[in-house]
Amino acid sequence: MIFGRSERGKPPVEPVTLKILVAGGFGVGKTTLVGAVSEIRPLRTEELLTEAGRPVDDTSGVEAKSTTTVAMDFGRITLREDLVLYLFGTPGQERFWFMWDELSEGALGAVVLADTRRLEDCFAAVDYFERRAIPFVVGVNCFDGSARYPEDAVRQALDLDDDVPLVLCDARDRESVKEVLVGVVQHAMTQAARRRSAVTT
Questions:
Q1: What are the UniProt keywords, alphabetically (predicted)?
Q2: How far apart are CA 110 and CA 94, in angstroms?
Q3: Tens of pLDDT along 150-172?
Q4: Which of 17, 123, 134, 136 shows its CA 20 to 30 Å from the CA of 192?
Q5: Greater confidence, 187 or 42?
Q6: Residue 183 to residue 161: CA distance in whole angstroms
Q7: 43: pLDDT confidence band, cut at 50, 70 and 90?
């Protein structure tokens, strides 16, 4: 299907639409990730960082960052003719966390982006999705010049359950991000199947 039209002789396909959240700490690359894969012009709610915000916005490690998401980022990607993902990037600073509950309503799953230079910044997102039983994948965003750590070390530092996928990614690279998103869908489907199995046994 191209631009909503079916191929000649084939009935139109009504795609399944799924909602995926992209969460993580301040400056971890959420806006970049959504923009890297979105097939539409991403909706962004970024504002310039100001002197008034410096006491509450920790920019250590991301000193070059000049803007911040204050509501959400939104993008869309068609993975298959019958599967469309809507991506919602959450704001990273604590003072905007009140928006997470509304953004997470109806979400199939989430990506928690992590930066090994500021790993503690994604603790809140991991805790949030664990408490609400929302399936999530941790994507370690491999920034230029950042140290690389073994997967087991990162997993231990985040205290992740064994069944939570952890992948290395580049939030700037479309194919890398697509792999992460496919991983979220697969993980969420696996979790849903386990829950159904537990109910019927």
A1: GTP-binding, Hydrolase, Nucleotide-binding
A2: 18
A3: 999 999 999 999 999 999 999 99
A4: 123
A5: 187
A6: 16
A7: confident
Q: In terms of residues, how long is the chain?
A: 201
Contact (Cβ atoms closer than 8 angstroms) between residue 185 and residue 179: no
Q: How many CB atoms lie within 10 A of CB 23?
A: 27
Identify the three-state secondary structure at position 144.
coil
Average pLDDT of the segment spanning 105-113:
97
CB atoms under 10 Å from CB of 164, counted, come to 18
Backbone angles phi, psi at 85, to 5 degrees: -105, 130
Answer whether 138's CB lies under 8 Å from 122's CB. yes
- Residue reference for tokens 């109910």: 199
At residue 15, φ and ψ (nearest 5 deg) are -70, 150
The long-range contacts involving 116-120, CB below 8 angstroms and separated by at least 24 positions, are 116/140, 116/146, 116/147, 116/148, 116/149, 116/154, 117/61, 117/143, 117/146, 117/147, 118/25, 118/27, 118/28, 118/60, 118/61, 118/62, 119/154, 119/157, 119/158, 120/25
Cα-based distances in Å from 19 to 10, 59, 185:
27, 29, 10
